[in-house]
Amino acid sequence: MIIAMRSDAAEDQIEHVCDRIREFGYTPHVIRGEERVVIGAIGRGDNKDHLQTLRSAPGVAEVIRILQPYKLVSRELKPQKSIIRAGDLEIGGDEFVVMAGPCSVETRDQLMETAHAVKRAGARVLRGGAYKPRTSPYDFQGLEEEGLKLLAEARQQTGLKIVTEVVTAEDVDLVAEYADILQVGARNMQNFALLKRLGNARRPVLLKRGMSSTVKELLLSAEYIASHGNDQIILCERGIRTFETATRNTLDLAAVPLLREMSHLPIVVDPSHGTGRRSLVCPASKAALVIGADGLILEVHPRPEEAWSDGPQSLTLSGFDEIMGELRRYAHLEARRIA
Ligand code: PEP
Ligand code: MN
User: Fold this and answer.
1) Does residue 48 have a pLDDT over 90?
2) Which residue owns the Cα nearest ligand 1 atom 6?
3) What secondary structure, in 3-state letters, does the chain show?
4) What's the confidence (pLDDT) of residue 46?
């Protein structure tokens, strides 16, 4: 249920409604919009009819049932787009934000060379996996904390924000010490213990769509994080598995405007994993911008043929620079700022 307050509702009236929601066994989530405050009553309380009685509470304009199973992340609850902040960086605002870097953090030289190059070309966030969820147990699993330290060093040298993957609930605190944004990988989109734990992380979460997940399942995973206390979530379309094998995944670009209709959360696209082929990353990146994404996450490596993971889809440093040039032309048409 949503309790929409009148635009002139006083703070004590808002507090009173929250108290009643708690009495009925629900959790109140207060959302302060530009015009009015709306309060979501979330959870399995005693009786939905009790919430209807709030219609007559002072300061209340309307009590509305949320029809979708995802509530806190839905547009029904919050019609305006959300802006997610990582320090001074805004994701979901006017700026089209590009995150770029290697699939895996490999060595100091590899990471610093990439970080400086993507910064120069206009990236705002450095990506790089320190914990790698690999399909084969014999593949490189990541440098772990050593990799996190290198990412922090790269942030210090370049001023870029850091996004990196957290694979287990136990690692959330450690990764959050080093990262500005915590990435949940496709293989972990329905790791509910991890999602719940991220609910009390004090960092934004980049939530990737599972490779066999529907848009509704993605939003329900976001709802797990939000309902456990963290509404700083960025959705990521990274391609899904279909009958097509010519590309590594099938990049579902229509999911971007669809998610936009369903949710207020920002949406970024990952054309690297979405296509699996370097030559397709540029056209898919342009399409993502034009179809309305808030940003991109791209894999870049100084020598892709030597990459320890995902070389075939990694851009070279000059390839990344070229893509940024192309994106600037389209950003202008879409009235988006780009660095
Ligand atoms: C990655 O970003 O390197 C990664 C493992 O992505 P995904 O979880 O989308 O496969
Ligand atoms: Mn990768």
Assistant:
1) no
2) 185
3) CEEEECCCCCHHHHHHHHHHHHHCCCEEEEEECCCCEEEEEECCCCCHHHHHHHHHCCCEEEEECCCCCCCCCECCCCCCCCCEEECCEEECCCECEEEEECCECCCHHHHHHHHHHHHHHCCCEEECECCCCCCCCCCCCCCCHHHHHHHHHHHHHHCCEEEEECCCHHHHHHHHHHCCEEEECHHHCCCHHHHHHHCCCCCCEEEECCCCCCHHHHHHHHHHHHHCCCCCEEEEECCECCCCCCCCCECCCCHHHHHHHHECCCEEECHHHHHCCHHHHHHHHHHHHHHCCCEEEEEECCCHHHCCCCHHHCECHHHHHHHHHHHHHHHHHCCCECC
4) 79
